[in-house]
Amino acid sequence: MNDERIRPWHKNAYYWEYKGKPVLLLGGSDEDNLFNHPDLVMRNLDALTKCGGNYIRCTLSCRDPGNVWPFMKVDNKYDLDRFNPEFWNRLRKCLKEAYKRDIIVQIEIWDPHDFWNRGDRRPWLKSPWNPTMNLNYTSKNTHLLEEWSYHPSNKPQPFFLSPIFKDEVLLRYQEKFVTRVLEETSEFPNVLYCIDNETRAPPEWTLYWAKFISERARAYGVKIQLTEMWDPWDLRHELHSVTYTHPEFFTFTEVSQNNWQRGKTHYERLLWFRKILVKYGRPRPMNNVKIYGAPMPRHSAIPELNLDRFWKCIFAGCASARFHRPPTGIGLNEVAQRAIKVARAFTSSFDIFHCEPRPDLIFDSKPEAYCLAKPDEVYALYFPQGGKVRMRISDYSRSLEVMWFNPEKIAFTIKEVLQMKNGTVNIKAPSESLWLALLLLHS
Predict the structure, then answer these.
(1) Angle of helix 168-185 relative to helix 85-100, nearest 10 degrees?
(2) How far apart are the first and last CA of the chain?
(3) What whole-number distance in Å separates Cα of residue 337 and Cα of residue 58?
(4) From CA 113, how far away is CA 151, in angstroms rounded?
(5) Given this model, what pLDDT does residue 396 score?
(6) What is the percent of the chain with per-residue pLDDT over 70, rounded to a whole number?
(7) What are residue 323's phi and psi, to 5 degrees?
(8) Strands 77-83 and 71-74, how do they pair?
(9) Rounded mean pLDDT of 382-404?
(10) How do strand 399-406 and strand 435-441 relate by DSSP bridges?
(11) From the CA atom positions of the chain, what is the Rg in Å?
């Protein structure tokens, strides 16, 4: 299946190819660890397929009601030498069903939010990795503490310092778990790998696992796609540099935390990151496995904000856009399904894979507009709230056909021909609401 595997597209590595064809990943789901919710997984996969989606998140997390842990329980304690078949069966079933539907699954191996005490759930107190909850080690022969109340973004758990502490006892079990993850998943061509969710662990942790995972995958004869998801919202933070300065390990990038940014800052940071990838190695896909719809963490999603971030990711040339689960995202509700359907229809109507973000072509925009273009052939525009723009198209005068895509009708509903003057043209949206447009040059 190596020829089928998802990988950066050989003609434009900012995008993915799957089964030999370029593909834009669009998605949403109602849980981040969908595989561990047997009653929900099939409903979400079917709904996603129906609306044209092809991308889900698969955090190997176990803290929700009804989830199972990857280890067997013996006399009220877990045995880390014995894996729980139900956990792995759920994971493989999810991957198999996703593969049948050509859905890409992005796996996150570690989730720091499983390793601290919070609210009523307090997952660390119930975790098999807690020294009080397993038969295999204690807080005396590892660096682990029985209680950990610090938020993961404030202070890394000793669990995420094992390579630095040379905590050999813990590392042995961590390596055993990661090896099992690869054994169960590497045969599937529709899988992407991310080491952590929102980590602020030291770079040594991430680079340790990047090397370990890459070497194990090669031993299986598999070329996997790997990244890390750093916690800082600002893509210019030094932790993000670990990913883009190590292209030998990280074949794609995760920019989800940028989705806490708003307005033009959100878009401009993506463009900055896109350029920095070229400076340090080569273009690589920029994935958004989480697009938040809330203004701040622990706030509820605002659908309009979620949609705006979704479209800005696409128009910044990102390789994927997925709605985060509720409450800080809209998951796979009706609004999300409709947006995915709209995005699939619109982006399939032109050659997006040869386009690039071109904010330099837009000036005098009121209020704001965004452009993807393959200059002298096609220009795609996103108007969040209607308005008008003046665009620089070419250095000479030609006629220009504007095709307006109405998201409400999921179709092109208006066509008009405009005349350029001195290589520029004025374009006005049909109304003060979300509009998409294609600009086609006539000879």
Answers:
(1) 40
(2) 44
(3) 19
(4) 8
(5) 62
(6) 98
(7) -70, 130
(8) antiparallel
(9) 87
(10) antiparallel
(11) 23
Which secondary-structure segment (H or E) carries 42? helix 38-50
In tens, the pLDDT along 404-437 reads 999 999 999 999 999 888 888 999 999 999 999 9
Q: How many CA atoms lie within 13 A of 384 on its CB side?
A: 22
pLDDT at 190 over 90: yes
Does 430 sit behind a cis peptide bond, omega within 30 degrees of 0 on the bond before it?
no
Position 178 confidence tier, pLDDT thresholds 50, 70, 90: very high
Report d(CA 198, CA 323) in Å as an integer: 16
3-state secondary structure 55-118: EEEEECCCCCCCCCCCEEEECCEEEEEEECHHHHHHHHHHHHHHHHCCCEEEEEEECHHHCCCC
* Residue pair 351/321 in contact by the 8 Å Cβ criterion: no
**Cα 403 to the center of its chain, rounded Å:** 30
- Residue in this structure with the two tokens 């229809």, named with its chain if needed: 345
DSSP 8-class letter at 291 = B
pLDDT of residue 397: 61
pLDDT score at 235 = 98
The rounded percent of the chain whose pLDDT value lies above 90 is 89
Neighbours of 153 (CB within 10 A): 14
Q: What's the length of the chain?
A: 443
Per-residue pLDDT for 203 more than 90? Answer: yes
Strand bridging mode 55-59 / 71-74: unpaired
The number of beta carbons lying within 10 Å of the beta carbon of residue 385 is 16
Q: Whole-angstrom Cα distance, residue 402 to residue 391?
A: 12
Distance CA 429, CA 280 (A): 39
Token couple for 134? 């397993």
Question: 300-326: per-residue pLDDT in tens?
Answer: 999 999 999 999 999 999 999 999 999
Please give the Cα distance from 397 to 410 (Å, whole number): 32
Q: How far is CA 11 from the centre of its chain?
A: 21
